[in-house]
Amino acid sequence: MKHTFQLNGIWNGGRNSEGVIEAGNLKTVISIPEGMGGPGVGTNPDEMLLGAAATCYLITLAAMLERSGIETESLTQTSEGIVDVTNNIFTYESIVHRPRVILKAGSGEREVEKARRLAEMAEGSCMISRAVAGNVKLSTVPEIHVAAI
């Protein structure tokens, strides 16, 4: 079985203009970021790649925790994308995910270690991570805690 995603885009002008993209529930203005010499209106491909990688990782981790029977109090995350700009050539170097998993009160060391392993494994199970692997360095720095009773 295959699933097709479709995106429609409109660009209004030259490099420093802006456009609009629409794909399913995503509809947004796009442009080149201000820090890269653009107008900084709306989002940009760099933020969208980070968003795709981060949301895929977060959803994958949540599903893996659930399937493993690990109950969480909360699951939050920060992710960071690093883009190198050398000689006016832009290269997406790396993405780091920092999930913070709070397990239900009463969880033991076994659950903590299992959650840590799953947090490290989730990157390899994520479709977006697999799509960029080999081109962008991917890493995960999980933080696992147990909620206080």
**How is the biggest beta sheet arranged?**
4 strands, mixed
Q: Can you identify the CATH superfamily of the largest domain?
A: K homology (KH) domain
Amino-to-carboxy terminus distance: 46 Å
What is the name of the CATH class of the largest domain? Alpha Beta
Summarize the structure.
This protein is an alpha/beta fold. The protein folds into 2 domains: 1-43, N-terminal domain of TfIIb; 45-146, GMP Synthetase, Chain A, domain 3 (2-Layer Sandwich).
Keywords:
GMP Synthetase, Chain A, domain 3; elongated; 2 domains; N-terminal domain of TfIIb; 3 helices; 3-stranded antiparallel beta sheet; alpha/beta; 149 residues; 4-stranded mixed beta sheet
Describe this structure in words.
This protein is 31% helix and 36% strand. It is an alpha/beta fold and 149 residues long. It has two domains: 1-43, N-terminal domain of TfIIb, CATH 2.20.25; 45-146, K homology (KH) domain (GMP Synthetase, Chain A, domain 3, 2-Layer Sandwich). Strands 4, 5, 6 and 7 form a four-stranded mixed beta sheet that branches. The termini are far apart.
